[in-house]
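Lab manual, section 2.4: Encoding a predicted structure.

Procedure: take the sequence of the chain (563 residues), apply the prediction step described in section 2.3, and record the output as structure tokens. A sample record is shown.
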Amino acid sequence: MSTLLDPSPAVHGTMPPGDSLARAKAQASLRSLFGRGLRHLFAVALAAACVAGFVALAQATGWKLPRASAVLGHPPAEEEDWCKEHGVPLSGCVECRPDRFPRSVGYSRNGRQNDWCEEHGVHDCPLCRPDVAQLPARRAATPAELVVAANALAFSARVGNEPECKLHLRRVQLGSDELADRLGLGFVPAWRGPVREVVTAPAEVAYDQTRVGRVTARASGTVSRVEKQLGDKVRKGELLAVIDSAEVGRAKAEFQQALVQLDLRRETLAKLRPMAGATVAEKDVQAVEAAAEEAEVRLVAAEELLSTLGLPIQAAEVRALSAAQLAERLQSLGLPESLKRDLAGRSESSTFLPVYAPHDGEVVARSAVPGEATDPTRPLFVIADTGRMRLSIRVRPEDANRVRPGQPVRFRHAGHRGPTAWDSARVTWVSPAADERSRTVPVLAEFLSPSDRHHANTFGAAEVVLREEANTVLVPASAVHWEGCCHVVFVRDVNYERPGAPKVFHVRTVRPGARSDSPAGPLVEIAAGLLPGEVVAAAGSGALRSELLKNNLGEGCACCAGK
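Recorded output:
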């Protein structure tokens, strides 16, 4: 009897010889890896303990690593001479060793009574204290300089400086001239020059409205002749056109009839008056008198009508004329002699109405065309005095209170550049009300010297000059910095260029005034705080400002703290 055997180890409880050997090898490898890890961990801990012991020993004994120069065999350098706070050699640092570079005589750190100028609103005012000015020779401010400063400060509310500010106590020092070159510093002495303060506003060139005539016919009719064309220069009273008007003919006939009727009734009255109460009733005489007065009123009305049409005539001047002579006189009434000769013998001339120029000027518009009907509501010509142009300026309401009649105005057409592009004018009127749509205040100005460059309805920029000073202190705008509480400039020490002298800049508070443009760049007026000839840092002065603020961290007054 045969039995089938199960080859599975689970059945028999034993493993094949090959599997047992593999398992033994895996366990041995695991034990070897664990042993190597323990050995590495022990080595790292031992190395860390050695380093910690070495550091502790070096600190206890004061030992330091040798310099590269000692390792390479070079002689050892001297003790380091460098001020890390101000970036200059410690032996020459004027801030850390003020005895090597004392401040000006009489300078005080304790209180503002010695360094704050109430009159000019700056610290260390060179106008009042000549000893602080960085000039080769000490000099006092002249009376003219004091007047210019007072006028500049009184003209408007200038930005003030904080009396408690301590920035002016600082001095910025450079290590060498080479450093100034690398920083790109540029130095400029303050100079005297002209400056003006202006209100800038858009402006439009326009005709003087008091010298612009929109000429119309005084009666309806048809244009018969046109004597002037566009661009023609005309004189006052010169013939422009002739209108053929039936109204003129009726007005002349009315005058002639009224004149004849008045003469007839006066003759009748003269005959009846001696017979009043005898052969003629009194009431009949009174009726003739009333009719004569009525005829006289009618004649006066006819005279006024012709005068309104521009054809003045007086009954007293023509009463002695015959009927034929009166008709001839009325036919050519108001016409110039040249036209009278052309129309001699033509009956239609009795309806002609001449149109004359109201003043000297130029024909700038014309709508009159021969044969075209016209009426008093439609202008035939526009006559303008092109030699009297005006500026219509639109000023902002906040600036309008500073604009006054009589102030000079500079105007430049849009797109024009250069010093010769400006034209002079003068304010003649400031509107008491703002424009309802633009909310700007209209200002009129009249050109002082008319130019052919002016064309009506063109635009440009106008500057109303509020203040003009010919001799004030100027510096480039890049030299002035606002620090949140004060305006400052960096004034170069008077001994800066002397060999061996510290490269020092004094921080000076100033009061800026007007700003203007120049070919070299924008300029700023220094109303107070600087004298002509003092050298300031202009180009690249932002580097000095950065150094000033870096060194000022945590120092100074409350308004300067943290700047």
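Check your result against the sample. Confidence is low (pLDDT under 50) at residues 1-16, 68-79, 105-113.
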